[in-house]
Amino acid sequence: MEYSFRQAQSEDIPQIWEILERAIQRRKEEGSNQWQDGYPNVSVIRTDIEKGHGYVLTDGGIIAGYCAILINDEPAYANLQGQWLTAGDFVVYHRVALAEEYLGKGLAQKMLLYIEDFARQHNIYSVKADTNFDNGGMLNIFKKLGYAYCGEVFFRGAPRKAFEKVIAH
Q1: Mind listing the pLDDT tens digit for each residue in 40-53?
Q2: Where is the N-acetyltransferase domain (predicted)?
Q3: What's the pTM?
Q4: 104: closest CA among 128, 131, 129, 140?
Q5: Are residues 165 and 146 in contact, defined by beta-carbon separation less than 8 angstroms?
Q6: What is the CATH classification number for the domain harbouring 32?
Q7: CA 165, CA 167: separation in Å to the nearest integer?
Q8: Is the Cβ–Cβ distance between 116 and 127 less than 8 Å?
Q9: Cα 105 to the chain's mean position, in Å?
Q10: Count of structural domains within the chain
């Protein structure tokens, strides 16, 4: 399969939202409280795209996955209960989700590798992310890709595990 990674456009919103709705439902079925409080929602996605932060992994004309990528823009990370590996510029990503039919094919890892490429293109060599304590899929991917556990951050009153990966130049 030939995948590509590009900035999301406003016309992608219906496909992106469908992917996120299913991901929200899957988290609920897994017994997680992650994404069960009305976040993320369509207006969050719209804002991601308007600000140029939304990215999609595509398989031809089909959107296989979505994430938001930001540079030095996660206020909660300043209050980490723990220790980051680096103190300089960083890329952070949120709202990683794959379409149902693309699950189990290693595409979340592929998307995170595209995010590392994005960081390098911006001369940034730190990638930071966080996830729920019970999100086994993401925790496993962080481990596989060499992320270091750095501590806890808090979003909307709930603790999350925070990770960082220092990438090669």
Answers
A1: 999 999 999 999 99
A2: 3-169
A3: 0.94
A4: 140
A5: yes
A6: 3.40.630.30
A7: 6
A8: yes
A9: 17
A10: 1
